[in-house]
């Protein structure tokens, strides 16, 4: 199974980006599947109700969400399948690795 | 003008919280106003279309957004007024201050 690291490459929908977050919009139609991709720690906000199956090489997770929900998505790799009969529409707020202030830099070589 | 620091205290709607984010749901009706409150760096996702006036002691900002938009809200204090004729419904993904790894802690007293 080939892994494409970044969901922006496999399933485009780039919304906004700055030093702290990247925000993606995701849409698909009933029955569509994604290629495998990796999410950093993220908050997903659902803009439609949808049913999905998330899969890795050895695990499957089925979920059904209403519109207007917010869920924590810990960093993970998976592929997704729209298992319902309606489109998926969601916003992903991806958290970037915390920037370190100069005062907090390690002293000396690591 | 008295400042209540935390919008959870003034306008409850706590959704989820962990080490990296706190997620709030906000709803109001046409014509309602909030007390002054402070937002940390946040991403706002609109679940309804709405028109709002944001005010500080010396500035006013009017905005109109569609449902399903995601906007960056840099840390700020303000009060808000629903200036449209429909309810506001939005999700705020508040970013917490970056946690520092033990390796990145300052050496010696600050």
Give the helices and strands, then pairings.
The structure is a homodimer of 110-residue chains.
Chain A: H1 7-10, E1 14-17, E2 21-28, E3 37-39, E4 42-46, E5 50-55, E6 60-65, E7 70-73, E8 76-82, E9 88-95
Antiparallel strand pairs in A: 1-2, 2-9, 3-8, 4-7, 4-9, 5-6, 5-8
Could you explain the architecture of this structure?
By secondary structure, chain A is mostly beta strands. Helix content of chain A is 4%, strand content 46%. The first copy, chain A, has a single domain, classed as Jelly Rolls. Chain A has one helix at residues 7-10, and strands spanning 14-17, 21-28, 37-39, 42-46, 50-55, 60-65, 70-73, 76-82, 88-95. The longest helix of chain A has 4 residues, at 7-10. At the A-B interface, strand 2, strand 7 and strand 9 of A face strand 2, strand 7 and strand 9 of B.
């Amino acid at each position: 199974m080939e892994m494409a690291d970044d969901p922006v490459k496999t399933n485009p929908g780039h919304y906004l980006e700055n030093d702290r977050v990247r925000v993606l919009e995701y849409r698909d139609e009933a029955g569509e599947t994604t290629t495998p991709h990796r999410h950093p720690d993220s908050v997903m906000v659902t803009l439609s109700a949808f049913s999905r199956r998330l899969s890795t090489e050895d695990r499957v997770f089925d979920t059904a969400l209403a519109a207007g929900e917010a869920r924590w998505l810990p960093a993970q790799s998976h592929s997704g399948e729209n298992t319902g009969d309606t489109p998926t529409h969601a916003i992903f707020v991806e958290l970037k690795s915390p920037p370190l202030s100069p005062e907090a830099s390690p002293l000396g070589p690591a």
